[in-house]
Amino acid sequence: MIPKQAQLVLMSFLLLSCSSPSPIPTTGLQLWLKADAGVTLNGSTVSKWADQSGKGNDAIQPDLPRQPLLVKDGLNGKPTIRFDGLSRLGLTGSKRMTQISLFIVFKMDSGTYVSHNLIDFGDIDAEGSVWGVNLQTSYTGFAQDIVNIFAGQYSEVRAVAPRCAAFGVWHSISVVTDRVMSTTTVRENAIDAQTTLPHNNLSISVPIGNPTGTGGQIAGPDGTQPPPGRTAAKCDIAEVILYDRVLSDSLRRSVEQYLGMKYQLPPTGEVKSRQ
Q: What is the architecture of the domain spanning 23-272?
């Protein structure tokens, strides 16, 4: 008969050996938001989107009118978070980054403003404005299928990817920047996008957000409130993954493959959203 202490050790070993490893690399992982985990609801709206990276860099919104909506079957049976053009979630992490590998699964909805900010990093209170990487899609007649990556107000990388700005279409976008903006590369549904290098090659040094959630943000414009004539993003977001390092090409593709398989996103195709 196995002694009780040995039984406990054996059970602990079996539990550890049966636990599934993380489907994505964990070294340098700073933020992992997925709509099928860590969502705190206030009725049907989201007051907190808990970080699954283990770093505690949660996204929060205490203001009820600005809380986004949880859509239980938003994308191929998986839940998503819906932002209506006024709602936003503030990023609480204050980890400063000089290297960024960012992955987002999203779809844009029609709106009144020519650009929709998907995600901003920075600390408004400490630095005066959102500063860092700002992923933005444009849909004007002269800027079709553009993803803009901003550093401050003076450095911008534009990436052209087929139908990346189309409404009602799900995409997986990855952006990698290594210390300076000219190193930025963008992939849409695991396909390299054509990038235009910035005129001002600014360096990257930016926190995720700040402890109060008034710095970096998801689906919000620059600042904590939408300026006159400007809206926050009208979009659904299924998952956000952020590293404070540059992933190798093989690791980057492993994250893209994880997202593509999870949400049934074909590498070069499109998935229409259920309304």
A: Sandwich (2.60)
